[in-house]
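Aggregate trends can hide what the representation actually does to any particular protein. This step matters because it turns folding into a mapping between discrete strings. For completeness, the protein is quoted in full, as a sequence line and a line of structure tokens:
=====
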Amino acid sequence: MKKVEYNDYIKEMTEALPRGAFLTVKSGDKVNTMTIGWGNIGYIWGKPVFMVLVRDSRYTYQLIENSKEFTVSIPFKGMKEELSFCGTKSGRDFDKFKECNLKKLTPDHVSTPFIGGCDLHYECKIMFKQRMNPENLDGNLDKKWYPHKDYHTLYFGEILGCYFDKDI
């Protein structure tokens, strides 16, 4: 795995993210991963940042609320079954690592693992979080994405390291 700049593979990341990536969180001795299809990389407060969204109904929400970090692991191709399982099953009921035979890789700066078999990995320290205020959301987006009023909390993570693990 080689260390790269956070924006070296931005095009590949933004093309792969809608197909799914693994958001992994560790709190105490509990580790869970979930599939995300939304996120954003940018530069805020003088730092590279990965912003992820988690609904409070998710098991991952309980963990990330008690954590100061997260990782994002993105497969550019493949891992469709693993992404599907981790996006439809709860860590409350399943050990996703065991069920999907996911390998935990150790990052350099945080204790939350990466997911082996992915191409691109980000390790992040939470800098800021904000629960969505529906009053500030465009009505069409609210209607389309939040019919059950299960809004996200946005987590802004300073990217401490970015790693590439395969050949394109």
Observations:
- The domain at 2-164 is CATH 2.30.110.10 (Pnp Oxidase; Chain A).
- The CA atoms of residues 55 and 151 lie 6 Å apart.
- The helical segments are 10-16, 59-64, 80-88, 96-99, 139-145.
- The first helix runs from residue 10 to 16.
